[in-house]
Amino acid sequence: MRILGLDFGSRTVGVAVSDGLLLTAQGVETIERKDENKLRKTCARIEEIVKEYEVSTIVLGLPKNMNNTEGERVEKTKEFGTMLERRTGLPVVYWDERLTTVAAEQVLMESGVRRENRKAVIDKVAACLILQGYLDRLSTQSEPLQTENE
Question: How many CB atoms neighbour CB 126 within 10 A?
């Protein structure tokens, strides 16, 4: 089983997937849409990716403000997460994505990607950073999470 990482934006969704050992994140694609509120095709594409990669969990970047408050984008992201849970039947985990787009831009600049080419891949790279942060956190947990019944 793999984990899917998503960077949800107003017109794009960056997509990354973990390897089978849950150690590394790889960029898959950037899903684009013409209208912010037209999510049917976006959700359908994510469902295809979930099946193709045998995904068990979705990690969705949560765009909190720098002062840790939640604005309109957080609300839209949570609505999208609820929609994904309903459509895929998979759990959606929210992961703080502050500064991931800035970090993605830095990675692309250091890699020598020309400015005009960065826009096409920045959301996919941001999705990788979101997912990698989550995977790194998973690997440092010393014991599995316990349920209330244990």
Answer: 29
